Amino acid sequence: MVLITFLVVGCTGKEVKETSQKKDMKLITDEEKPYIGFLIDTLKEERWYKDKALFEEQVKSLGGEVKTLAANGLDDVQIKQAELLIGEGVDVLVVVPHDATISAKIVEMAHEAGIKVISYDRLIKDADVDYYISFDNEKVGELQASEILKKTSSGNFAYIGGSESDNNAILFRQGAMKVLQPQIDSGKIKLVYDEYTEEWKPDVAKSNMKNALSKNGNKIDAVIAANDGTAGGVIESLASVGLAGKVPVSGQDAELEGVRRIVKGVQTMTVYKSINQLATESAELAVKVAKSEEVKTEKTINNGKSDIPSIFLEPIAITQDNIRDTIIKDGYLTEEEIYK
Ligand code: GAL
């Protein structure tokens, strides 16, 4: 017994303590395996459960270990969780930031510990993020506005955006306005209401829509809502004045309730983003980065600090006509749960 201990003592007391502590801290991982930390903002919206499950599954199938922590929309909690995973010796951090700018702190801390950071779905701004992977978020907004314009191309329009702390919400709105602006400039469309929705909350979207209706004598002809959660709130308000199904409303995320509303005809469209593709490509990227492999990307995006190497996936507009060829075909949702 003495001999072995001595050998161990060979190195400095402190190193032994550290190594054994790190070993203790990383008990869930095998030293050789890439250890990925996945920091997500929230599990409030349906899609994030899919992101978590699919990303973890993919990392494990690539021989890695993964730990996911959700911050419930709280910045200080997300930063604490980053500290924890950095302390646990993760090889790379994959982050869905709650706040685009506050989360820059996470990149700073990770880089101090020699750990790279991948921004997942939402961009971290004003920091030297190592990689960004998401969908073409401006195109999401373009698809939303284009589908609504197919239903009505004149009158009073309301824009019910996402959470302003989420850079995606800014990009969705930019894309929608790119499509609407010519109609606004020609005077065919009047944008009578235009608000972001705190924390993407459906209830806040519902009360914002109530304001929009009361401020315009219920004369609203179309609504661009940024995701299915906010669309649900909007449609509740429209229903309260007998306008549900009469006013076209957009959405995003292909949530079950959103797709059911499209089948019922009270929601016009949603945007399907293959979370399977996002999680798979992100896991591949994370494992490569954890193994210090250099990954070249075709695209970059400027986040206010630098041009971040980026991967952008294609969003798909969903209406009553293509639900089976897309969402059901991909197994994202089933025929049974949508149409029963
Ligand atoms: C966005 C995301 C959307 C939506 C929203 C609310 O960043 O891209 O898919 O779900 O967050 O969580």
Name some characteristics of this structure:
single chain, alpha/beta, Rossmann fold, 3-stranded parallel sheet, 12 strands, binds beta-D-galactopyranose
Verbal overview:
This protein is of the alpha/beta class and 340 residues long. The chain is built from 13 helices and twelve strands. The protein has a seven-stranded mixed β-sheet, with helices on both faces. The protein has a three-stranded parallel β-sheet with strand order 7-6-8, with helices on both faces. The N terminus is likely disordered. It binds beta-D-galactopyranose.
Secondary structure: elements and pairs:
Elements: H1 2-10, H2 13-25, E1 35-40, H3 46-61, E2 65-70, H4 75-87, E3 92-95, H5 104-112, E4 116-120, E5 131-135, H6 137-151, E6 155-160, H7 167-185, E7 189-195, H8 202-215, E8 222-225, H9 228-240, H10 256-264, E9 270-272, H11 275-290, E10 299-302, E11 307-313, E12 316-318, H12 324-328, H13 335-339
Parallel strand pairs: 1-2, 1-3, 3-4, 4-5, 5-11, 6-7, 6-8
Antiparallel strand pairs: 9-12, 10-11
The structure holds beta-D-galactopyranose (GAL).
Pfam family, one: Peripla_BP_4
Domain Periplasmic binding protein: 36-293
GO molecular function: carbohydrate binding
**Number of extended strands:** 12
What is the CATH C level class of the largest domain, in words?
Alpha Beta
How much beta, percentage-wise? 15-25%
Question: Per CATH, what is the topology of the largest domain?
Answer: Rossmann fold
In percent, how helical is the residue content? 40-55%
Low-confidence region ranges? 1-19
How many discrete domains? 2
GO cellular component, one term: outer membrane-bounded periplasmic space
Pfam family, one: Peripla_BP_4
Organism: Robertmurraya kyonggiensis
Subcellular location: Cell envelope
